[in-house]
Design a protein that fits this description.
By secondary structure, the protein is an alpha+beta fold. The chain has 24 helices and 22 strands. The structure holds adenosine monophosphate. Residues 81-82, 84, 112, 114-115, 119, 135, 171, 223, 284, 308 line the site of adenosine monophosphate.
Length: 664
């Protein structure tokens, strides 16, 4: 036992040291992988030995505790917004006002970057993080302490406690490369992509599940300290103090003398901001002397001693080379502009979205048009207009195709839809591939070993032509395909076998019937016992199902009218897939009226599967432990705070096997 205790203490020390090296000293002494390994070991030991629980353990940054819903609390010092300007003239008027109030022009400015994220206010006392609030309305903010504790660069305990009691303000951000990585991961898992780092950061800190927050690559950049205790003369010195205490204060600030110095800083970052590893939406100019700041004071909304100079969203002109027409899984045709590559906000843009047929028609684009492209935070840039002085030839106006660019079928358009469709659902290559990819995707059958590229490859080789072919693959031939060694074929076999026991709801969603998404398939399953019952339903009875409108009902009846689709269902039944709604039989109500919280990683099931198991059997899932929780279902790496709360409230903690017992 003593050995375990000393290993826990040792791991905490090593990890704290790495955090200090990485965040305070910019020294990265181990790889992320090695770091995560240490952290995982600690989390595992701590969850097995809760007697050594310590709220200040670095493992608390892996997630854990969360409040039922955020409490609003008052800021000790009001959090103001910043007055802002986009023009040099307004900046000059601000300067003139400041000179007038101070009655001197003998002062310095501290110029900083304006980080584009979500503001946060951290309160420290005796070297410990007491609470973290959002800006809220400036006087009150949401208490998001549990979420902020998951951010590794926010010290929970200070190494160097220079000021005893203070508030420190900052911005929660996500670096560009972490954002791309996060989205690549989501793409692989078939999850919807995030739009931009800013929204993702501000959305993440408001999540109720701090385990999920811990999975988001959040960072906290600090930019000001507020305290009654400090006797420091300049804002720039305060920033140095913050760094010494262990906070992440990016080193981009410059102290300059006159307005010309401010202009140089603005111009420099206007040209160079695209090379920054994170997003900014301008710069902040502050009067450096704190006595002068006090003299200038605040309006009801802004400090008079600071102003933000904002940059306009980058909007550049480039040449339109052509337009491609993409065919999606449902046959919808979307126009995509192919552009002469142009560097916008740090990345090379080659394509831009035109969203729909309607929008394309509005612009009446011609080949060689000079078009304005804006990257306003969205991942896919958009065309915002045309330079009418530099147009392509009238004859080169780009027409929307009348036939499918992939299979040549005549396109159709319903008045109620913004897009044209290719109705050749069975024979149009991208539609067929897209449907198989959808069936296999994580939210549907979640077949491991069958990624998007493998599906394309197997389609091209003629092995996969529809969903049912998945269950008749010739594994010997696949193992001969380059890059598909025995191991990956074994994985594929296992993934496919596993999928045969996936619940009916996943199968129904996986079929890809237009408008039958995850939520619609859940609603349908509440009403029916089997696919046979669904196939017999008419428009009227389908429309009676909660949330199933006429359009969806029509799409379902059309799907089952089609003989090929009915054959497909027969083949899938033969392969052994589940087409019976188990939860309508005897298991549906075994967990009704019970609320579960899930935490940790499980040996047999994935978290999603545990969730499904509970829901299918009538139980409810909640993200936080409260007096309403009936069970905490715990896997490995159980969040310590959840564990503590469940213990406090006397909520029974069960493992996955006990959950299955409970169900049966
Ligand atoms: P706004 O939200 O446009 O009113 O701008 C004010 C916000 O800018 C503050 O609440 C901060 O969250 C944010 N901000 C980002 N960087 C800085 C910085 N260096 N100094 C002060 N505020 C900043």
């Amino acid at each position: 036992m003593n050995e375990i205790k000393s290993r826990i203490f040792e791991l905490r020390k090593i990890i704290n040291n790495h955090n200090h090296n990485y965040y305070d000293l910019d020294k990265n002494l181990i790889s992320d992988f090695e770091y995560d390994k240490l952290l995982n070991e600690l989390v595992k030991l701590e969850s097995k030995h809760p007697e050594f629980y310590d709220e200040n353990s670095p493992s608390n940054r892996v997630g854990g505790g969360l409040s039922d819903k955020f409490n609003s609390e008052s800021h000790v010092f009001q959090m103001y917004s910043l007055d802002n300007t986009y023009s040099s003239e307004e900046l000059e008027s601000w300067y003139t006002r400041v000179v007038k109030i101070l009655n001197t022009d003998n002062f310095e400015f501290c110029c900083e970057l304006k980080y584009d994220g979500a503001s946060v206010n951290l309160m420290y006392e005796d070297g410990k993080l007491l609470r973290a609030l959002t800006r809220g309305d400036g006087t009150q903010g949401d208490n998001i302490t549990n979420n902020i504790k998951t951010i590794r660069s926010v010290p929970i305990k200070l190494n160097n406690n220079i000021i005893n009691k203070f508030e420190i303000r900052g911005e929660i951000i996500i670096r560009n490369d972490s954002f791309k990585k996060l989205n690549r991961k989501r793409e692989k898992l078939g999850e919807p992509l995030f739009k931009n780092p800013r929204n993702t950061a501000s959305g993440s800190i408001k999540l109720l599940d701090s385990d999920e927050v811990a999975r988001r690559p959040l960072e906290c950049f600090l930019y000001s300290i507020v305290s009654d205790e400090v006797k420091i003369k300049n804002h720039s010195e305060l920033l140095s103090v913050a760094r010494k205490m262990g906070f992440d204060v990016p080193k981009y600030e410059r102290v300059v003398d006159g307005l010309n110095g401010v202009r140089d800083y603005i111009d420099f970052w206007d040209k160079n901001r695209s090379s920054l590893p994170f997003e900014i939406d301008g710069i902040v100019i502050k009067i450096n002397n704190i006595d002068f700041q006090k003299k200038l004071g605040f309006t009801s909304k802004f400090p008079r001693w600071a102003i933000a100079y904002k940059y306009k969203a980058e909007n550049l002109a480039t040449k339109l080379n052509s337009i491609s027409f993409n065919v999606g899984r449902t046959g919808a045709i979307t126009p995509v502009a192919n552009l002469k590559p142009v560097l916008i906000s740090g990345s090379t843009v080659k394509r831009a979205s035109l969203h729909s047929f309607d929008q394309m028609m509005k612009l009446r684009l011609r080949v060689n048009d000079r078009v304005y492209v804006e990257k306003g935070g969205e991942i896919i840039p958009k065309i915002t207009g045309i330079d009418y002085n530099n147009r392509g030839f009238e004859n080169d106006e780009i027409k929307f195709p009348t036939n499918c660019p992939e299979c040549g079928t005549k396109l159709e358009k319903l008045d109620s839809e913004a897009n044209f469709y290719c109705a050749n659902t069975k024979g149009c290559r991208p539609q067929v591939i897209g449907r198989i990819q959808h069936f296999v995707s994580r939210k549907a059958m979640n077949i491991e070993g069958l990624g998007d590229e493998t599906i394309k490859l197997l389609y091209n080789k003629g092995y996969l032509r529809n969903i049912s072919d998945i269950y008749n693959l010739d594994y010997n031939s696949i193992s001969l395909i380059e890059g598909h060694a025995d191991k990956s074929v074994d994985n594929l076999k296992m993934g496919i076998e596993d999928s045969k026991s996936k619940p009916f709801q996943k199968v129904l969603y996986g079929l890809g019937i237009r408008y039958v998404g995850e939520s619609a398939s859940k609603k349908i399953l509440k009403k029916i016992k089997s696919i046979d019952e669904l196939m017999l339903m008419d428009l009227e009875s389908l429309s009676e199902i909660d949330e199933i409108g006429e359009k969806t009902a029509y799409s379902i009846t059309e799907f089952f009218k089609d003989e090929e689709n009915r054959n497909l269902i027969d083949k899938l039944k033969l392969a052994g897939l589940v087409f019976i709604n188990n939860n309508k039989d005897n298991t549906s109500s075994s967990l009704s009226n019970l609320t579960f919280v899930i935490s940790g990683v499980f040996d047999i099931h994935s978290r999603d599967e545990i969730k499904d198991l509970i829901e299918i059997n009538g139980g409810k899932i909640s993200s936080s432990v409260s007096s309403n929780t009936n069970y905490l279902v715990a896997g490995n790496n159980l969040g310590p705070a959840k564990y503590a709360k469940a213990n406090d409230l006397g909520v029974p903690i069960i493992n996955e096997m006990s959950l299955i017992d409970l169900i049966s």
